[in-house]
């Protein structure tokens, strides 16, 4: 079933592809070509130059970036035609400023459905404390982000949906359906749950009581998941569901590894400030640690004032 035939699911029409011409950006470009588009869709390439450079040097950098961007535009267009993708317009633009700010600005100007970004190597601890461009775009922007972690050869074949059993799960499912090709007939879903205050109360709780509580939580989650996957948005896919007890961030990454998933889709609630610095979002952790592409979005927009 193609995205266009799933109730409430629209194919991609406007995709933003930021690039710094690195290997990670190259992987992102190849993945972007493999996404399912509506006829007449647009794929916008954007490169962001630093703003704090002398005027003459900035003009030279802008010309060079424009030439590289035009070369990449032709390559992407050629690759799309080679794969039989027609009716998609590929455009390119150069901006100056802070990368994550200009990416968000461009996504708003273009009314993008999706931002596709490449991951820059593996620096999980640094990324968790400082934040990558991708993580900042996810946290402060409104448009869903696909973070590409490796070479793209085929459309997604082993998608995994992270279920939080809240509004973000509905949004994540619809988002995942938009980026899956029409040949995908099977998908996996995982829900990770914690026994409340398990670490604090374990010494005073009998093993039987703890096991009963975990069993109750598992049964409740299983029933809610079955209702969720019976919705129209989940139609057309055969689902393999897993329930995992434990810390959600670690459980999701382990499930990706266990299934050798090539994509995990999840929602985020965009923590900011001290809560984000001390706790870190599940989405941010998965983006930094998962050995596959990560698709992230939120059901409600946040208000981030661009400088």
From TrEMBL:
Pfam families: Usp. It comes from the Bacteria. The keyword ATP-binding applies. Residues 13-148, 207-296 form the UspA domain. Belongs to the universal stress protein A family. The keyword Ribonucleoprotein does not apply. Transmembrane segments: none annotated. This is Universal stress protein. It comes from Pyxidicoccus fallax. InterPro entries: Rossmann-like_a/b/a_fold, Universal_stress_UspA, UspA. Keywords: ATP-binding, Nucleotide-binding. One of its GO terms (molecular function) is ATP binding.
């Amino acid at each position: 079933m193609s995205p266009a035939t799933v109730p409430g699911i629209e194919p991609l029409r406007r995709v933003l592809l930021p690039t710094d011409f690195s290997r990670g950006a190259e992987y992102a470009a190849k993945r972007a070509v493999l996404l399912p588009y509506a006829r007449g869709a647009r794929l916008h390439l954007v490169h962001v130059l630093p703003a704090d450079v002398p005027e003459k040097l900035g003009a030279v950098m802008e010309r060079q970036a424009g030439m590289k961007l035009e070369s990449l535009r032709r390559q992407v267009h050629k690759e799309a035609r080679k794969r039989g993708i027609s009716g998609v317009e590929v455009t390119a633009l150069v901006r100056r400023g802070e990368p994550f700010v200009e990416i968000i600005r461009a996504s708003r100007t273009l009314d993008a459905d999706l931002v596709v970004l490449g991951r820059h190597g593996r620096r999980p601890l640094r990324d968790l404390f400082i934040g990558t461009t991708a993580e900042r775009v996810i946290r402060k922007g409104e448009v869903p982000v696909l973070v590409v972690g490796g070479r793209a050869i085929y459309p997604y074949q082993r998608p995994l949906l992270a279920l939080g059993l809240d509004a973000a799960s509905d949004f994540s499912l619809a988002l995942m359906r938009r980026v899956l090709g029409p040949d995908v007939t099977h998908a996996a879903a995982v829900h990770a749950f914690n026994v409340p205050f398990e670490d604090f109360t374990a010494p005073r709780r009998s093993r039987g009581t703890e096991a009963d509580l975990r069993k109750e939580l598992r049964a409740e989650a299983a029933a809610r998941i079955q209702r969720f996957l019976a919705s129209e948005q989940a139609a057309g896919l055969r689902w393999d569901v897993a329930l995992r007890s434990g810390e959600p961030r670690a459980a999701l990454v382990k499930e990706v590894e266990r299934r050798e998933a090539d994509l995990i889709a999840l929602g985020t609630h965009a923590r900011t400030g001290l809560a984000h610095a001390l706790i870190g979002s599940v989405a941010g952790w998965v983006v930094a640690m998962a050995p596959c592409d990560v698709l992230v979005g939120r059901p409600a927009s946040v208000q981030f004032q661009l400088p």
